[in-house]
Amino acid sequence: MNKKLISFFLFLSFLNIYYLSSFSKISFGDGIGFLLDVEKELFTNQVTPLSHFLYLNTAVFLTKYCGVDSIMTMRLASVVPAALSIAFLYIIIKELIAENWIAITCSIVFGLGFTFWRSASTIEVYTFNAIWIIFFLIYSLKSLKKPSLINLLLTGFFLGVSMWVHIQNIMLIPAYFVILYQLRNSKKNIFISVSIFTLIFCTMFLVNHLAYIPVKYTFLTGTGTWIEDTFRQGFSELLKDVIKSFLFLLYNFNIFLIFLPYGIREIYINHKNIFPFIVASFVFTFGFATFYAVSDNYVFFIPSYIIIIILIGYGIKFLSAKYKLKKLQLITFLIPLFYIGCYKIASNVDATKTFRQEKAYKGGLSYYMLPWLHNNLGCIEFTLKKRTSIDNVEELRRQSLEFVKLREKYQNREEVIKL
């Protein structure tokens, strides 16, 4: 089957999966803050770690000028980039590995991975961010294969633009430097690429300056102590971070992790031209996500997971020369059953009883162990019915009540409570 046709089929398939599994009610988390700004049709003029300039302003534009309902806008802002990411991920792996079945298998594994699927099911920036990272990876790898002006220019362009979505992407700058070093003989092309990247990157500081935002807040939030907490961690906390990151890996890739070391070996031995770039892309993004001291750090692993699935693809290719592995394609369709099985087991373990009770307002273990949010409990209903929680949810309540006030201008209370 034609590569473009397969890519389009993957896009349509995951568009349906993500849309059908998307939140039924406005979910818990940071999403209500984004939704509130979109409902207000309020563009942001700040480029900070919490503003997500390109993500938020794209959503506001769709609502304000295209007449799309704010909730639908935010749903599509997660679902569509997620489905596109799977389609373009297939193209990357197909270009690198050639075997169609491996590229399809790896794309499905990544697409059904808990972290990415959950991000596609809720209101969050991370799938919108992933598509820009994938574009950066596509043209980075193209540049290593064919260091043309257009490939290098687009490498710098997409890396620069990605910073306007999420500042976490500064962790990809070392990988960009690796490319520049490896292609150091193409001086003119490198100069143009670096100029484009520098212009886009430095414009963030100019935008903040015009908004009277200190330069440091391009990288710092000013509202939390996450960076300070990260550097204050002791050995035991760091060890817990490492263990937790491994458990996240296991939950996202399950038995496919077996192929990871073989993939690393394959690239190191037979693809030395891309090995340094792959290492730099992975180490800094994975390291940041592992040690960043926030409670929901699992979402920060997505950039490194893109690299991991590429490595898994290489591992499958290496072992497929010795073993018949095409049946792995069938295993991918069992991934949802893996989540359900883990959830059922955890639900019957006494050790989780207290946790289930404390998090019942969100849906208990299902909220944390099942990636889909169809028929979920919503934060609007939680707020209006004045339900209690041991967690600090005052900001969520405030934003929810403000959103309700705006919605009640054209919807009655019974309709709003169902949102």
TrEMBL record:
<feature type="transmembrane region" description="Helical">
    <location>
        <begin position="242"/>
        <end position="262"/>
    </location>
</feature>
<feature type="transmembrane region" description="Helical">
    <location>
        <begin position="75"/>
        <end position="93"/>
    </location>
</feature>
<keyword id="KW-0328">Glycosyltransferase</keyword>
<feature type="transmembrane region" description="Helical">
    <location>
        <begin position="190"/>
        <end position="213"/>
    </location>
</feature>
<dbReference type="Pfam" id="PF11028">
    <property type="entry name" value="TMEM260-like"/>
</dbReference>
<feature type="transmembrane region" description="Helical">
    <location>
        <begin position="99"/>
        <end position="116"/>
    </location>
</feature>
<protein>
    <submittedName>
        <fullName>DUF2723 domain-containing protein</fullName>
    </submittedName>
</protein>
<keyword id="KW-1133">Transmembrane helix</keyword>
<feature type="transmembrane region" description="Helical">
    <location>
        <begin position="274"/>
        <end position="292"/>
    </location>
</feature>
<keyword id="KW-0808">Transferase</keyword>
<feature type="transmembrane region" description="Helical">
    <location>
        <begin position="153"/>
        <end position="178"/>
    </location>
</feature>
<feature type="transmembrane region" description="Helical">
    <location>
        <begin position="328"/>
        <end position="346"/>
    </location>
</feature>
<dbReference type="InterPro" id="IPR021280">
    <property type="entry name" value="TMEM260-like"/>
</dbReference>
<keyword id="KW-0472">Membrane</keyword>
<feature type="transmembrane region" description="Helical">
    <location>
        <begin position="298"/>
        <end position="316"/>
    </location>
</feature>
<keyword id="KW-1003">Cell membrane</keyword>
<feature type="transmembrane region" description="Helical">
    <location>
        <begin position="123"/>
        <end position="141"/>
    </location>
</feature>
<dbReference type="InterPro" id="IPR050297">
    <property type="entry name" value="LipidA_mod_glycosyltrf_83"/>
</dbReference>
<keyword id="KW-0812">Transmembrane</keyword>
